[in-house]
Amino acid sequence: MGRRLDTVSTPARLAGPGEGIGADELALATRNHGLPLEALRYDITPPGLHYVLTHYDIPYVADDRSWRLSIGGRVRRTLDLDVAALRTFPQVTARVTMECAGNGRALLTPRPVSQPWLVEAVGTAEWTGVPLRLLLAEAGPAPDAVDVVFTGADHGVERGVEQDYQRALPVSVALGGEPEVLVAHTMNGAPLPPQHGRPLRLVVPGWYGMAHVKWLRDVTVSAEPFTGFQHTVAYRLRERAEDPGEPVTRIAPRALLVPPGFPDFMSRRRVVRPGPVTVHGRAWSGRAPVTAVEVSTDGGQSWRTARLDAADGHRWAWRGWRHTWTAAPGSYVLVARATDAEGHSQPLDQPWNRGGFANNLVQRVPVECVAGSPGEAT
Ligand SMILES: Nc1nc2c(c(=O)[nH]1)N[C@H]1C(S)=C(S)[C@@H](COP(=O)(O)O)O[C@H]1N2
Ligand SMILES: [Mo]
Fold this sequence. Notes:
- The chain has 378 residues and is mainly β.
- It folds into 2 domains: 3-247, Sulfite Oxidase, Chain A, domain 2; 254-369, Immunoglobulin-like.
- The chain is built from 6 helices and 22 strands.
- The strands form 5 sheets. It has a 6-stranded mixed sheet with strand order 14-15-22-21-17-18, with no helix packed on it. The chain has a 5-stranded mixed sheet with strand order 2-1-10-5-6.
- The relative contact order is 0.15.
- The mean pLDDT is 96.
- The chain binds ligand MTE and molybdenum atom.
- Molybdenum atom binds at residues 53, 100-102, 209-210.
């Protein structure tokens, strides 16, 4: 680690007791925006409302036609493809809910100092592209292949380590058909926007966001396990800095509700009128299909079962749910909790780790039920 990089790039740390969000976290929060929770109403997140997370800078790509994707390493034949060549392969469209592994981090105590997500680092898009397994079949991976490494065009320094953004998948996942990993060029029917990886990105349904490498320029088949920064240093579940930890992979179940009523501008506390209130939202899991959502209006002491929307065949996308709550004047804390077919559910107490990853603590939405002024329409 060079001395000069030491001065610009500091080690990971936890916020001290009572330490508020700092200027560096605020700068990250303004670059990397979340899904406004009211946009959970849409099956497919409208353009610009999908969350964004970019570690370094968004590469400037003036002309997609000059972009090249190389596929090499332990293969019979190296491929060098432009976007037009990629479009000659069979195309697949998949509806995929993507969530940042750091979602919920800013609510943890102590708080890992990083992108300070509350709960909104999620979105659902329809991605069109070429199944990765078809590209790899064309290249012919060697029998000793272990990992497939994906490199983006973005470059930066993180915790003192200068790097291009790189992640890998086990060869079994890269070649697998369920989920089908895509090299996508299209998001919701249009070329990828710059912030979502223009012109090419990886889409790994069911996996946390870090696996979906944007600005994809290189795919390298490797006979060695990948040991890059984003695998062995970042994106590991560890309690103490010196633990090797476990890798972050698939998305843990989560339900989010559309905050009901209307918000206060500063506190964002919600106000509803007395009477029936439809509490609704979305739930997803990258491990197994969502089988139940429960709703509480008393902070998690008692629960009601929500009605799940009909399964629509989009295994890797979130599922809608709803519940009718009859509100009476008073203070409430709404909570929703998802469970998947493997029995994974959401904790009521924070599942803490040093990076604040895969934290699927339930969402809590404080609501005041206040009668309207006399004569006011409700
Ligand atoms: N090249 C590159 N790919 C990347 C990242 C990045 O910083 N660089 N961020 C990853 C992370 S951490 C997440 S959560 C998702 C976010 O994808 P989105 O911005 O399209 O929502 O992209 C992933 N792919
Ligand atoms: Mo992320």
